[in-house]
Amino acid sequence: MAVKVQTTKRGDPHELRNIFLQYASTEVDGEHYMTPEDFVQHYLGLYNDPNSNPKIVQLLAGVADQTKDGKCQRNFWADYYSSSYPF
């Protein structure tokens, strides 16, 4: 009996870049970044209540902030959603 395996299409690097730039509110030396709030509250749409605990936002953003510097870089964000793309 053959097993059918469903695959997921990789995200287009240009589309991922455009999505990232739509939510990235910080730019340093020409490099765009998402803040923890950008990623969790604006992109994911979580913890938007004014009384939300900011530490929870920071903790959740740590998934995409691999350098733990408070900035979600585009390449790490893309890795979160797709295989590594150089864009």
TrEMBL record:
Q: What is its main location?
A: mitochondrion
Q: Provide this UniProt record's keywords sorted from A to Z.
A: Membrane, Metal-binding, Repeat
Instruction: Report whether Repeat shows up as a keyword of the record.
Output: yes
Per the UniProt entry, the signal peptide is none
Q: Which GO terms describe its cellular component?
A: uniplex complex
| MF annotations from Gene Ontology | calcium ion binding
**Gene Ontology BP annotations:** calcium import into the mitochondrion; mitochondrial calcium ion homeostasis
Which domain of life, per UniProt?
A: Eukaryota
Report the subcellular localization: Mitochondrion inner membrane
Q: Please report the name of this protein according to its UniProt entry.
A: Solute carrier family 25 member 12
